């Protein structure tokens, strides 16, 4: 496998670094996987630089062809990067002829091509609505599980035999001690020992809104909707850390790692440091330095450094030394 044809991927970003493209008029990348498909990039030089993105011929691309929504960026390697950015494209991709982007600019020598997948869906050949790849809706439950979840949903929604009140920043909710205790060792400790929560059957959680707390309870009762989870991810992460709900903390980390981009990477890095999320922290540092996206956040980085933890800044500096070694 040639290093010049390898494509690196992280989250929904694929990056192809071209080390040499002088007299050569055509080059194709190795296959890289995003979603359920293997993909290729190719470049061809004529009057323009023509860039193609297409799925590798396979049963998956034939029986479940992708509808992709994506953005392409081309930039020179080195400190003086001036990216050439495509519009947002959305189309059905089957072959190398389905998408070509002519770049009216000269790129030669060392440069790189980024593809950021904003959405991927499976085109159903029977004409039904496309099936989204991200995020999954968690709907594949057995009938017995659906029945159980329906009962738990009623218990929460209709406050059936509730025995604990949760006072949030802007309202109160009813829940069940047994379920909270089974979900969190912190809650269990509250109810086992002679703490005020045991005596009053009340929990004060003033650092969370009622809406976010309802999302937390919906997760614990197994009835949370995907859109509510995504909307309240950061509040859920804080609650999961505070009440030692490991499964929720892991879900939040995986979700935050899944859609890193230039607009949120610094915030994600701060959250990763605050809650000791090693995978998310590594993903953010890789995105910024290995993939060179530090150039995209140069306007925000100064303010970030003003508030960042000193140890985090040292770790970022070490990452710079690792990635930008002298040739």
TrEMBL record:
Regions that span the bilayer: none
CDD domains named among the record's database cross-references: BTB_POZ_ZBTB_KLHL-like (cd18186)
Cross-referenced SMART domains: BTB (SM00225)
InterPro entries: AtSIBP1-like, BTB/POZ_dom, SKP1/BTB/POZ_sf
Domain BTB: 162-221
Pfam families in alphabetical order: BTB (PF00651)
Pathway listed: Protein modification; protein ubiquitination
Name of the protein in its database record: BTB domain-containing protein
Organism (species): Stephania yunnanensis
């Amino acid at each position: 496998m040639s290093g010049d044809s390898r494509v690196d991927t992280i989250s929904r970003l694929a990056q192809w670094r071209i080390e040499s493209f002088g007299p050569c008029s055509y080059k194709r990348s190795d296959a890289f996987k995003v979603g359920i498909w293997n993909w290729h990039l190719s470049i061809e030089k004529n009057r323009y630089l023509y860039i193609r993105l297409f799925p590798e011929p396979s049963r998956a691309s034939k029986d479940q062809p992708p509808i992709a929504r994506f953005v392409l960026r081309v930039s020179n390697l080195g400190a003086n990067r001036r990216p050439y950015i495509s519009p947002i494209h959305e189309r059905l991709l089957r072959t190398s002829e389905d998408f070509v982007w002519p770049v009216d600019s000269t790129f030669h020598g060392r440069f790189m091509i980024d593809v950021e997948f904003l959405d991927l869906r499976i085109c159903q050949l029977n004409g039904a609505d496309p099936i989204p790849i991200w995020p999954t809706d968690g709907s594949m439950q057995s009938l017995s599980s659906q029945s159980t979840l329906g009962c738990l949903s009623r218990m929460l929604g209709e406050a059936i035999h509730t025995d604990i009140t949760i006072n949030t920043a802007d309202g109160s909710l009813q829940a069940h001690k047994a379920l909270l205790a089974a979900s969190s060792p912190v809650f269990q400790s509250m109810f086992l020992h002679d703490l005020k929560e045991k005596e009053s059957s009340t929990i004060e959680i003033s650092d969370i809104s009622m809406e976010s707390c309802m999302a937390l309870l919906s997760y614990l009762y197994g009835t949370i909707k995907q859109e509510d989870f995504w909307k309240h991810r950061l509040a859920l992460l804080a609650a999961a850390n505070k009440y030692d709900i490991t499964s929720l903390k892991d879900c939040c980390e995986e979700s935050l790692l899944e859609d890193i981009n230039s607009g949120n990477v610094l915030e994600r890095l701060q959250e990763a440091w605050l809650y000791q999320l090693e995978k998310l922290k590594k993903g953010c540092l890789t995105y910024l330095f290995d993939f060179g996206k530090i150039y995209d956040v140069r306007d925000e980085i100064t303010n970030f450094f003003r508030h960042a933890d000193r140890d985090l800044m040292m770790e970022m500096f070490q990452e710079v030394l690792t990635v930008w070694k002298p040739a």
